[in-house]
């Protein structure tokens, strides 16, 4: 009973200690970013957060954002979403309570759908998703995404099957990955329509280490293709275990898998000839020798003392997309910025590193706020992925 | 022991005070309060099982999820209103809890803990596999929130907070009534000495079964409210390692067998990760260190610290006897 | 069909021996000191990371593993000193929370040092053994052999040395052992050292087949608790057979039913076994009505 009095006291204390953050100065634009900075997903989240920091510093150093006839600086507020829905929602509410009206993130396919209903009905906030590939987390009104959707990854898989005329396939999908699980039935249908027999659809989960049961079954079926959809640590392990058990067909990956990570888990010889079907990522743009990517790499290494992550460029791009929208709208009112984003064309943002293709009407985002960042087929040769140019079509 | 009307009065005052404080808060703080109140309700009902019978269940993360999904399915697929879905979720969860208990009470000690851990893991996996019902890993989206009554001039977030606080109030009072009943007394007998209790003819099976069902019912209510407030749930929120162990930590840090200690435990462990947001990268580390420090230096939890402090303050006064012996069977 | 079944059986035994290897150290510490040591998964993780670091620095794998194990023994004794010894006589629940806290602290420290990127130790033994009936990698053979060696070594220590006698006496009756003048400090130290070394060896060996990352110990330790309960707490024989049994069941469920049901199958089995034998295969009866 004293406890209850205590509880009331604590509650008040809670209210006092977590007081409102300082409001933004008038010549500042607050940008909130939400990424996992702790936990297993931080391997992807931290490089995204750093990509944003770098872009914000660059923009501020170059004089800020021209809104109408006045310059405004960007101020960044970073929040950790732990890659869980509850922490993500709490982080979003915290940003909103500090009057942040522009948000970049999140990474997690489990976080984005939890944020969606809140942002969807909140006309006072604009979100650019730079991480998750899950379907159905944008609306084209105040939620946009400059990362590919899984269905765009799947297009590259279909390209590959169309051109190679594979007759059969077994699929291994990470069933903890909301994005890949979301398009699993559709992709399976697409492959069937391309005359490939789907011999097996098997599942594993992030952190699994033993795939021998599924691989033994697979070897007995000997499909022409083994398609693995998930993360590279498991991808490497599945590839290795399949080979060890005597699988001789083509291995195809559909996953963000920078060569540096891949080679920490499997030897280059075992990877030789594996296909991957995703849009190019940071390491690809650098390997291609693209000027902006090289400059980004250099600045990133100078600032953080380590190489950028595969999604860093997307996060970097997201900041420049927002900047272009502020300047085009001549305002930092959400309604105007949303309209500017909806009407934006890729050429309006010359700083973009990722190779966005304009939609048919010339815009960067389509009606549901999705960029066109199509998956492309690459093949592992020697020490890394090499584009396979003659496939797209 | 204090009498029920006495406790009810103080609780109601505390509830009113909490609501009054809440009206001054922004949406973020309200959300933190909601999380606290929901986890405090879970912890209080869990304390009835853990603190009063001594049985450690790790299946409660899944039971929380069962309540959430039952509520979600009721309000979306079955078209029921929130106020119908809430008790149904509680009853369904209590029913499943009864089945779990009948299986699990064949064992004791670590066997009981691991058996319920297994059931918790099965439950979590079922949420993933039964994707037709639950949405699987993609989560269950579009759950309608508890609508604000039209005569109330407050917004949704404040109303959600009031509901969560009300759930905590109801759970706390119900738990107080339960532990003072004959069943509650029998539960303590189970904890203290099962053989003796049996020899005295105390119905231990009925006592511990009812404690498990009691905690199941309120866990279900909390789940349904959690789902309605978030409009979205995913299996990730109902894991054994996340939610299952979290509940144990809340109760132990708060003080087992006190009912009010777990409320403070929930406050500490909900507020801490939020307060440590700026120390991102070190926040989980700090959480681990705090847990360790608590268990080493305040083994009776927050409640124990406060009781000791209070005893020091009014030394001459007679000390009240409270349940002391801890232990898991 | 038959050779498919044989292959799946071999797969199951190979997986099961990894479970058993992790469970050995856990069951030893629990059986003797009654500590539900969740941090065992972190002994396993640190063993894997240290071996990785040393191998990357150019050391031979086996030497790296031995050095890693020594370091983890020191870590194990430190954890005991900080997290468990102050709680002597406390209820198992406090010990469990303490172990959980230690496990979180170790995971987070490892994340700060090594980041959460997954990596694999270059396999010391490569190649595949192909028989007419089944295929098994030499690394899997090494893991199974290590399991047999570890069990033999523990058995020898427990049954052929004075220290082993003291450990067994403590496991049977802590107070009586104390009265007999057995040094608890020595027993604790020895038990933790052996348990931690077993964890580190398991980590090094499995880190050469599986990816290593800071939270890699979480799932194996959960499985190891299941093995512990299946086999009967404190029983070495139970840990080995329980591990092999769990591995076989998981592989058979994944191979013949569905990979989605692999975990559900394993845990349903746990529930069924405990329904029939509430004390596990080799535990002493303490059933109640």
Automatic annotation (TrEMBL), chain A:
This is Amino acid/amide ABC transporter substrate-binding protein, HAAT family. Gene3D superfamilies: 3.40.50.2300. It comes from the Bacteria. Residues 1-21 form the signal peptide. It comes from Paracoccus laeviglucosivorans. The keyword Signal applies. Residues 29-350 form the Leucine-binding protein domain. Keywords: Amino-acid transport, Signal, Transport. Belongs to the leucine-binding protein family. GO terms for biological process: amino acid transport.
Automatic annotation (TrEMBL), chain B:
InterPro entries: ABC_transp_permease, LivM-like. Pfam families: BPD_transp_2 (PF02653). The keyword Cell membrane applies. The keyword Transmembrane helix applies. The chain crosses the membrane at residues 30-50, 55-74, 80-105, 112-138, 158-179, 211-233, 245-272, 284-306. Its main location: membrane. GO terms for molecular function: branched-chain amino acid transmembrane transporter activity. GO terms for cellular component: plasma membrane. Keywords: Cell membrane, Membrane, Transmembrane, Transmembrane helix. It is found in: Cell membrane. It is a multi-pass membrane protein. This is Amino acid/amide ABC transporter membrane protein 2, HAAT family. It comes from Paracoccus laeviglucosivorans.
TrEMBL record, chain C:
Pfam families: BPD_transp_2. The keyword Transmembrane applies. Its main location: membrane. GO terms for cellular component: plasma membrane. The chain crosses the membrane at residues 12-35, 42-59, 95-115, 135-158, 189-213, 225-249, 261-282. InterPro entries: ABC_transp_permease, BCAA_transport_permease. GO terms for biological process: amino acid transport. GO terms for molecular function: transmembrane transporter activity. The keyword Transcription does not apply. It is found in: Cell membrane. It is a multi-pass membrane protein. Belongs to the binding-protein-dependent transport system permease family. LivHM subfamily. This is Amino acid/amide ABC transporter membrane protein 1, HAAT family. It comes from Paracoccus laeviglucosivorans. The lineage of its organism: Bacteria, Pseudomonadati, Pseudomonadota, Alphaproteobacteria, Rhodobacterales.
């Amino acid at each position: 009973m004293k406890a209850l009095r205590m509880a009331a006291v604590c509650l008040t204390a809670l209210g006092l200690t977590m007081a409102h953050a300082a409001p933004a100065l008038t010549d500042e634009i607050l940008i909130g970013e939400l990424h996992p900075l702790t936990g297993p997903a931080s391997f992807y989240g931290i490089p995204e957060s750093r990509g944003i920091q770098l872009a914000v510093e660059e923009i501020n150093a170059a004089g800020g954002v021209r809104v109408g006839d006045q310059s405004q600086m960007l101020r960044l507020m970073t929040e950790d979403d732990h890659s869980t829905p509850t922490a993500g929602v709490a982080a979003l509410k915290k940003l909103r309570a500090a009057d942040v009206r522009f948000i970049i993130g999140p990474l997690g396919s489990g976080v984005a759908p939890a944020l969606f209903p809140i942002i969807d009905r909140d006309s006072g906030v604009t979100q650019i998703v730079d991480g998750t590939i899950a379907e159905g987390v944008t609306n084209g009104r105040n939620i946009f995404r400059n990362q590919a959707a899984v269905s765009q990854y799947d297009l590259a898989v279909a390209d590959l099957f169309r051109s190679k005329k594979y007759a059969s396939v077994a699929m291994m999908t990470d069933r903890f990955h909301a994005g890949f699980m979301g398009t699993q039935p559709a992709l399976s249908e697409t492959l069937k329509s391309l005359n490939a027999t789907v011999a097996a659809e098997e599942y594993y989960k992030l952190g699994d280490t033993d795939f021998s049961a599924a691989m033994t079954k697979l070897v007995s079926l000997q499909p022409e293709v083994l398609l693995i959809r998930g993360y590279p640590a498991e991808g490497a392990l599945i590839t290795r275990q399949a080979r060890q058990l005597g699988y001789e067909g083509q291995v195809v990956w559909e996953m963000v898998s920078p060569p540096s990570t891949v080679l920490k888990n499997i030897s280059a010889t075992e990877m030789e000839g594996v296909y991957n079907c995703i849009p190019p990522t940071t390491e690809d743009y650098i390997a291609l020798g693209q000027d902006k990517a090289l400059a980004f790499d250099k600045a990133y290494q100078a600032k953080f003392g380590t190489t950028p992550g595969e999604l860093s460029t997307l996060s970097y791009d997201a900041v420049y997309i927002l900047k272009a929208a502020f300047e085009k709208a001549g305002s930092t009112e959400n309604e105007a910025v949303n309209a500017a984003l909806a009407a934006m064309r890729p050429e309006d943002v010359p700083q973009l590193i990722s190779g966005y293709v304009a939609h048919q009407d010339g815009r960067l985002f389509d009606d549901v706020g999705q960029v066109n960042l199509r998956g492309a087929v690459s093949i592992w040769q020697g020490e890394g992925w090499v584009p396979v140019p003659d496939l797209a079509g | 022991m204090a009498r029920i009307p006495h406790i009810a009065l103080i609780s109601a005052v505390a509830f009113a005070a909490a609501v009054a404080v809440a009206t001054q808060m922004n949406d973020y703080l309200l959300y933190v309060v909601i999380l606290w109140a929901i986890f405090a309700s879970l912890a209080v009902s869990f304390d009835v099982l853990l603190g009063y019978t001594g049985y450690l269940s790790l299946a409660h993360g899944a039971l929380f999820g069962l309540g959430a999904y039952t509520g979600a399915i009721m309000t979306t697929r079955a078209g029921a209103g929130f106020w119908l879905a809430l008790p149904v979720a509680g009853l369904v969860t209590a029913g499943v809890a009864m089945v779990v208990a009948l299986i699990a009470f064949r064992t004791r000690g670590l066997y009981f803990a691991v058996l319920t851990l297994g059931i918790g893991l099965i439950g979590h996996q079922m949420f993933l596999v039964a994707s037709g019902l639950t949405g699987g890993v993609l989560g269950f989206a579009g759950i309608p929130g508890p609508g604000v009554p039209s005569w109330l001039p407050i917004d949704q977030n404040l109303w959600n907070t009031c509901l969560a606080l009300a759930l905590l109030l109801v759970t706390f009072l119900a738990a107080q009534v339960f532990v003072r009943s004959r069943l509650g007394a029998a539960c303590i007998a189970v904890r203290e000495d099962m053989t003796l209790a049996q020899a005295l003819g105390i119905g231990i099976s009925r006592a511990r079964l009812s404690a498990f069902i009691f905690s199941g019912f309120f866990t279900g209510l909390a789940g349904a409210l959690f789902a309605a407030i978030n409009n979205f749930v995913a299996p990730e929120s109902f894991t054994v390692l996340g939610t299952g162990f979290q509940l144990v930590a809340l109760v132990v840090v708060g003080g087992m067998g006190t009912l009010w200690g777990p409320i403070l435990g929930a406050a500490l462990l909900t507020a801490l990760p939020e307060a440590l947001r700026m120390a991102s990268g070190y926040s989980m580390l700090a959480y681990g260190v705090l847990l360790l420090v608590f268990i080493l230096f305040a083994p009776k939890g927050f409640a124990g610290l406060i009781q000791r402090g209070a005893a020091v303050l009014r030394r001459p006064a007679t000390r009240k006897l409270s349940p002391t012996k801890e232990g898991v069977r | 069909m038959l050779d498919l079944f044989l292959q799946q059986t071999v797969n199951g035994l190979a997986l099961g021996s990894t479970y058993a290897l992790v469970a050995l150290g856990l069951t030893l510490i629990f059986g003797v000191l009654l500590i539900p040591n969740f941090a065992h998964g972190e002994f396993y993780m640190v063993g894997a990371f240290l071996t990785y670091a040393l191998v990357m620095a150019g050391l031979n794998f086996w030497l790296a593993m031995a050095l890693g194990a020594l370091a983890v023994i020191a870590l194990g004794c430190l954890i005991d000193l900080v997290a468990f010894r102050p709680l002597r006589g406390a209820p198992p629940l406090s010990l469990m929370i303490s172990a959980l806290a230690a496990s979180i602290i170790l995971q987070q420290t490892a994340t700060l040092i090594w980041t959460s990127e997954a990596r694999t130790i270059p396999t010391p033994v490569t190649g595949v053994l192909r028989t007419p009936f089944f295929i098994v990698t030499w690394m899997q053979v090494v893991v199974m052999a290590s399991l047999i060696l570890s069990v033999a070594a523990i058995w020898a220590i427990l049954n052929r040395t004075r220290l082993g006698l003291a450990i067994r006496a403590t496991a049977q009756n802590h107070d009586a052992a104390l009265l007999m003048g057995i040094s608890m400090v020595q027993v604790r130290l020895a038990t933790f050292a052996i348990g931690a070394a077993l964890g580190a060896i398991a980590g090094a060996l499995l880190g050469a087949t599986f990816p290593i990352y800071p939270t890699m110990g979480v799932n194996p330790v959960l499985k190891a608790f299941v093995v512990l309960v299946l086999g009967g707490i404190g029983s070495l024989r139970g840990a080995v057979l329980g591990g092999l049994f769990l591995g076989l069941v998981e592989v058979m469920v994944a191979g013949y039913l569905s990979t989605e049901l692999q975990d559900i199958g394993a845990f349903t089995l746990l529930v069924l076994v405990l329904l029939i034998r509430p004390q596990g295969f080799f535990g002493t009866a303490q059933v109640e009505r």
